Prior knowledge:
Strand content: 15-25%
Largest sheet: 7 strands, antiparallel
CATH topology of the largest domain: Jelly Rolls
Keywords: DNA-binding, Transcription, Transcription regulation
CATH class of the largest domain: Mainly Beta
Radius of gyration: 20 Å
Structural class: alpha+beta
Pfam family, one: HTH_18
CATH superfamily of the largest domain: Regulatory protein AraC
Helix content: 40-55%
GO molecular function, one term: sequence-specific DNA binding
Protein name: AraC family transcriptional regulator
CATH architecture of the largest domain: Sandwich
Domain HTH araC/xylS-type: 185-291
Amino acid sequence: MATQTISRIPTCMGADLKSKGFKVQEVSGIVPAAEIHARRDYYKIIMVTGDFTLKFGDKSVEMDGTYLFFANPNVYHTIVPRSLERSGYACVFTEDFIAGRELTELLQHSPLFRSSEFPVLPLNQDQVAFLTGIYKKMLSVYDSAYEHRDDLFRNCIELIVHEALQIQPANLDLREHNAAARMTRSFLELLEKQFPIDNPAEPLKLRTAQDFAQSLSVHINYLNRTVKAVTGKPTSVLIAERITAEAKALLQHTNWSVADIAYGLGFEYPTYFNNYFKRVTGTTPNAIRFENHK
């Protein structure tokens, strides 16, 4: 099925990603009218100065200044400029590039890469200076013959992530080694694993708390109790929020019909989806799509 999502990564960057798994470049010059970035099999960490609106999944933020932005492979994002110029740096890398290292877990479990979070951080002058130095170091060795440059790139990525975590600590720390936290993490990972929805012919399989309890081989009452204790929210609310967030992203960033979105999210009939969406959000799918395309 055709969608509106097209990658704006330059061709040369795509070629480098395929052959090397990593690319770093300076971002500068005239901003296109809009950039719509599809879900792809790479991460991006961008430090950019400019004046624009960033739409990430179902969320939106106005950005005027210097920001650090993290994009994971599972979520659409769209950049709508309000000024003609921008400057900064970007590094792009595949999961294979960081596989087999502690960095993989750091990225996957960091709130900066969770689709439920909004990974945009405003930077002060000291933070900009520190991060600029890291990006310049990566650029200085990118085309060199230095034999350990991939390790240097991975260490630089880790430094950027740790700097970001100091700026904005995790809202939800699930690293505690207790049974409730482990069960909650298993539930959240299983919930997130179902996304993104790339094809309405392959709908969600787990949509209720009972579905997740069966998949995790626990009683539904235990799952509900532990998830509520750790997150403060019922299991059903977390499921509804994630399904609704995906629905909003598909409505805003693709040209799928409402019926296709409904089927992709596991609803047997579009009417069921419309009623569900309105109950959770207070508005209709068509209203969200109309508002986004005004």
